Amino acid sequence: MNARRLSLQVCVVLLCASWACGDAEKARPAVDPAQALKQKITNPVITGPLGEAFDQLRKLGGVKIEPDWLVLGSAGVGRDTPASVEASEATVAQLLDIMLARVSPKGYPLAWYLDKDVVRVTTQLRVLYRRYMRSRASPGDKGDARRPGPMPEALEFEDAPLSHVIDFFKEITGVNFSVNWRALKTAGAEKETPVTLKVQGISIARALDLVTDQLNAGRSKDDSVYWVVNEGVVVISTGATLNTNLSVRVYDVGDLLVIAPDFPGPRISLDVAGNTSTSNQTSQTNRTDKGLFDEERGGDNLRGGREPDRREQRTAMQNTLITAIKDSIGEDMWLPNGKGSITMLNGRLIISQTPLGFKLLERAARR
Fold first, then answer.
1. Helix (H) or strand (E) holding 47
2. Which of 28, 74, 244, 253 sits at a 20 to 30 Å CA gap from 11?
3. In this predicted structure, what is the pLDDT of residue 137?
């Protein structure tokens, strides 16, 4: 009887303790991810496969980190990629920057951005694509924000005429479509060309990509069919007709080109191959205390007297980013072979391209 009573008392105590812990968790204020990224860590040591390194950084900074492993894998980076960081003191953002700088394959720089309360890790091209899409949704975008949006849960066409498929998209989106049937005929696509498609859980934009991909099998870039959005109208035509007039778009990428602090003394060890080295080598990227979209720079006083080297590093990073963007759609789209051009001015990427060029850039960034 006494043993049963004691057991009951223990259960009551444990249950009360559980309730108390639950109340404490509810009462605990949520961590502000922006503040968590500014948090300075003393003597941080992060080492191991990249997947585990992200887990260690999560625990150190108390911030959610979600890598896009599918995109990172296409760039040659996986969960088992070796990565390590040691420093006397650094913010969570700086540690993340240094880690990404060291695991980035040549020509495929990685980056991160803050999405509400989650730090998402992907490629620089994907970050630029995200900014591009956000800029199109801005109030002053002359209607370009009316991109094809959500689609019914399931979509199925079985040898449906192309003109009927386009009419269906026009009806469910409420967006104007302009089809250059004369140009499409030169590419072998006519109003009666059959389209077969069975998909679910994707956007109309992706569905349109799949439709045009069916029309483009075995065709060159100029002879292929694309869709673009121009001032609120979905234009469907061939690459040759879309590769004409130039337009200019500007992207603020200064935060992607900030140099990471070179920590004084033999306190930093980073090696993609897994070998530890101690040196005063200059790291390749830097995170400001404010995070990805802020322009205020921090950490420059961690090591002085290196401005010439830092300028060289910044120039090299600019060239790497520009090269990656050019290579993503081919040199034939850029001067002197094509019409497009790309320059960097005061941390802003200035891209001059045709509608075809911007379409190819958009698709390359989404891959």
1. strand 45-49
2. 28
3. 54
pLDDT value of residue 366: 74
Query: Given this model, what pLDDT does residue 12 score?
Result: 40
Contact 261, 94 (CB under 8 A): yes
- Residues of the chain falling short of pLDDT 50: 1-29, 138-146, 264-305
CA distance 315 to 321: 10
Q: What is the pLDDT of residue 203?
A: 83
* Residue at 219 is within a domain: yes
Furthest-apart CA pair in the chain: how many Å? 93
Tell me, what DSSP letter sits at residue 46?
A: E
Helix (H, G, I), strand (E, B) or coil at 157: strand
Question: Is residue 53 located within the same domain as residue 112?
Answer: yes
Q: Is residue 116 part of a domain?
A: yes
Amino acid at 174: G
User: What is the rounded distance in angstroms from the CA atom of residue 132 to the CA atom of residue 249?
Assistant: 9
pLDDT at 173: 82
Residues 222 and 326 in one domain: no
CA atoms of 15 and 17, how far apart (whole Å): 5
- Which residue range is the domain that position 320 belongs to? 34-136+250-366
- Secondary structure of residue 63 in the 3-state scheme: coil
Total domain count, the chain: 2
Say if 238 falls within a structural domain. no
- 366, burial (CB in 10 Å: exposed 0-12, middle 13-18, buried 19+): middle
Cβ atoms 337, 331 nearer than 8 A: yes
Would you say 55 and 93 are in contact if contact means Cβ atoms under 8 Å apart?
no
| Whole-number pLDDT of residue 129 | 67
Closest CA to 166 of 211, 127, 214, 132: 211
Nearest to 328 by CA among 131, 107, 122: 107
Task: Specify whether the CB–CB gap between 349 and 341 falls below 8 A.
Answer: no
Q: Do the Cβ atoms of 323 and 107 come closer than 8 Å?
A: yes
**114-150 pLDDT, tens digit each:** 988 999 999 887 787 677 666 655 444 444 434 555 5
